[in-house]
Design goal:
mainly alpha, 2 domains, rod-shaped
């Protein structure tokens, strides 16, 4: 009779352990799922960050050219035909370009 009581107690304990294991495995599965989702979200944010940085930095690698037909007039520059290098270096080229625009 005592053996029968012990086996019933063992059966109850085994059932409690099995029920606890099912809950534990369910929590572990949920935890792994949350971890996987958090890694996916972090990769998504990393991708957004890289695309944003690349999109904003791309214009730095492009060049823009403006082609102007400038008529060089010695009167606008403030020099004459026989001017030396110093006079040509100190000439007002900005006024010449503004006049062309």
């Amino acid at each position: 009779m005592q053996k029968n009581i012990l086996s019933q107690d063992n059966y109850k304990n085994t059932e409690k352990v099995r029920a606890g294991l099912k809950k534990r495995y369910a929590r572990e599965k949920r935890f792994r799922f949350y971890g996987f989702i958090s890694i996916l979200i972090s990769f998504l944010f990393l991708l957004i960050l890289v695309v944003n940085i690349t999109g904003k930095g791309l214009p730095a690698f492009q060049q823009t050219y403006v082609k102007l037909d400038i008529k060089i007039d010695s009167q606008v520059l403030g020099v004459d035909k026989d001017s030396d290098k110093e006079a040509l270096f100190s000439a007002n080229y900005g006024k010449l370009i503004k006049g062309t625009l």
